[in-house]
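FAQ: What does a ligand-bound record look like?

Like this one, built around magnesium ion:
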Amino acid sequence: MGTDYVLHMKGISKSFPGVKALSNVDFGLRKGEIHALMGENGAGKSTLIKVATGVHKWDAGEVLLAGRTIAPKSPLEAQRLGISTVYQEVNLCPNLSVAENIYIGRHPRKRGLIDWHKMYQGSERLLERLDLAIDVKQPLSHYSVAIQQMVAIARAVDISNGILILDEPTSSLDANEVKQLFKVMRILKQEGMGIVFVTHFLDQVYEVTDRITVLRNGMLVGEYLTKDLTKTELVSHMIGREWSVEEATGKKAVERTAGENFLEATSLGKRGSINPIDLQIGKGEVLGLAGLLGSGRTEIAKLIFGIDKADEGSLTIDGELISSMYPQKAIQKGLGFTPEDRKVAGIIGELTIRENIVLALQARKGLFSFIPLRKQKEIANYYIDLLKIKTPSAEQKIENLSGGNQQKVILARWLATQPKLLILDEPTRGIDVGSKMEIRKLILDLAATGISILIISAELEEIVQCCNRIIVLRDRIKIGEVAGANMRENIIMEMIAKGAEMYGGSDGIGA
Ligand SMILES: Nc1ncnc2c1ncn2[C@@H]1O[C@H](COP(=O)(O)OP(=O)(O)OP(=O)(O)O)[C@@H](O)[C@H]1O
Ligand SMILES: [Mg+2]
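The answer part, i.e. the structure of the complex:
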């Protein structure tokens, strides 16, 4: 037994102060399979991976690579053994060429000098093998995040000894890019590689994986063949109770007669970023922005919040014409903004959860009216409860939380300011199925109390479920609006595919 495993982890336990992240977990990866590692936020998926990749020392258990016991003490040592990981954030050097990135730290040399010819040839051959047409001499930054990720994978594959680990690689890819990634994964599987795939997108699990291991609260729930496990069963295993599809569909945004507008943008635009756009958000309305990656969704949010400066058009908030918008003013006017990339614009790793949560509230109050510690704790604990943030205490450093729980802290930060308009850019990215539903419900509850909400999401299902009205974007232009019975995924997809011609520009099809 066990000899057919390329990677076999036996009885792994790992504790952090106050948290038992893994208890006696078994995980076996076979040759030529794609194996999903599933579980709620904080279940222990990334920790298990970090044990295999030398990031964390483990407390008990054994790790075998192709039948041999290993104990990598650093990621570098794990790499030398042939274990390599690709995380959601690409950890390469954007200024170097694609080829240099593939060979970072292991440049081929000839008489002491870098052998460029060999490096280019090697990279070309490698990318060809993955059926990727990429110019290896171009700087990496020349390519989209998706392509950069493929390059990271190519590098990992070249280093690896038959296994590849992908921790949420698809969270910032659009549908076509996901397809391309899956093609690469299937090629590697055909070659006999074992692939670990972590994701919160259930559809992707069913599309590409052969086997599923489920963790819950740091414990192994079980290992299943994907074809034998229904989606309902999978989610029930993840959350530890019965679950129904009806639960997932949830309630919908209540129909609203267009009330007073909280925000009105007229011909608001910025050259090279977003074409002038008209947009109104009513009080208590949930407005969605749909469109592919790069269609201008985030750019609109940045203009409204004043992160980017509009060079034309006007913005009125609560009846007041705003001459020049900047984030501090936006916060004072009652706006909140959770950015899509929590690493760049969101969390401050060294600070505690409490400090991260009160940050925006403190900014609005001004630095001279310090929120008393007792009050801070009260606020932090309230949101930890409300959003079910998995942590031993509010005083934990946020960098020690799992990815999905960090995302929840950012949401808490803005909820704590009790905003009048909340802009949510990909609010449930990286968040597990159960919490996703809860956050969507929360959004609807907030709207019911009169708060206006602007949601940006690549998941059409999400905006269709939450919104009263949806603006559809393509190539940085508003191509239409849908509401009422027209708010269906296929209608929106068709609009995006066909573009403006069919729907006659920004008037679009109404309700
Ligand atoms: N460096 C650390 N210090 C303290 N606690 C940690 C550390 N890393 C992880 N944890 C804790 O271990 C538990 C498991 O976290 P892990 O990151 O493995 O979850 P995950 O399953 O990957 O979740 P997600 O889906 O949100 O990414 C969590 O409770 C987390 O807070
Ligand atoms: Mg994780």
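Follow-up question: can I read anything off the structure? Yes, for example: The chain is about 35% helix and 25% strand.
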